[in-house]
Design a protein that fits this description.
alpha+beta, 27% strand, single chain, 278 residues, Actin, Chain A, domain 4, five-stranded mixed beta sheet
Length: 278
């Protein structure tokens, strides 16, 4: 009997030890290529009046671990880069279709230019040379390890008015093309505590003592300092990105709040797609 107990104990210890020492599942890094495209709409078929310019720099996956489908991952990248309406087209075809749709704006731009010239004439203002609108979209891969990717899509545009706009959309996704949400990463009832941590980190980053000082610095929409779904994962932690006017005035621009894993460990799920980072 004692021998049986001893053998059973050794077996259990051996199993636990093997589980503990089990290496992280290996994934081949995803490989990427970049499709760059530049185009211009000229008004009234003359090259001295620019209606709008387009610049695209699309980095997308071309091969990855055989366990997962590269086509499915490409669909996710296309959707994040160009929008859901292009999601199920191959990357090159999606870019071609986007450029074609861009050129379909020509008649409307010519009409808008004509109207602006008429307004300028009525007000005795100098006639506009052109519209000089533009759209620029670029993406970059911020993390590429163990079947997890973090992607940044930066969009800049000007379509009239006092100034242009820039947005940064960040997402973390698996190599199966699944975009991770906060619910995939954080344990239940995380929202209030995570909000407080975000505020504390923003205070530290800006050397502010309290919310009132943040307000004075230009963070005038403090009610927006909440988990907003616009985050990405890295080796060191999770970064939240807030757009212009989301938590601060235009002059502040885009704000980022970095949360080291050590500061949010208690809020994270014990088993999640990013558990290996903890």
């Amino acid at each position: 009997m004692n021998n049986k107990i001893l053998l059973f104990t050794v077996a259990v210890i051996s199993i636990l030890s093997s589980c503990k020492d089990k290496p992280l599942q290996e994934y081949r890094k995803v490989e990427f290529t970049t499709h760059a495209s530049k185009d211009t709409i000229y008004l009234f078929d003359t090259h001295d009046k620019i209606g709008s310019a387009l610049s695209l720099s699309f980095t997308y996956p071309i091969s990855q671990d055989p366990k997962d489908s590269v086509e499915q991952l490409q669909h996710a990248f296309v959707s994040l880069f160009l929008g859901e309406g292009y999601a199920y087209q191959a990357p090159d075809l999606a870019i071609d279709q986007y450029v074609k749709n861009f050129h379909s704006q020509k008649a409307n731009l010519e009409k808008e230019y004509t109207q602006l010239c008429e307004y300028a004439k009525e007000d005795d203002l100098e006639e506009r040379k052109d519209l000089s609108y533009f759209m620029s979209i670029k993406d970059s891969v911020l993390y590429n390890e163990h079947g997890i990717l973090s992607l940044l899509v930066t969009t800049s545009s000007y379509t009239g008015g006092a100034h242009g706009t820039t947005t940064k959309k960040v997402r973390t996704l698996t190599t199966k093309g699944t975009i991770l949400t906060e619910e995939d990463i954080f344990a239940e009832n995380y929202t209030d505590e995570l909000k407080n941590i975000l505020i504390d980190k923003l205070l530290v980053q800006n050397k502010a003592k309290d919310i009132n000082e943040l307000y004075e610095l230009g963070f005038i929409f403090t009610e927006g300092i909440v988990p907003n779904g616009n985050f990405y994962v890295s080796k060191e932690g999770i970064t939240y990105v807030y757009g212009a006017y989301e938590i601060a005035c235009y002059a502040i621009g885009i704000s980022e709040v970095f949360l080291p894993f050590d500061d949010i460990r208690m809020l994270l799920r014990k088993k999640s797609p990013i558990s290996f980072l903890l």
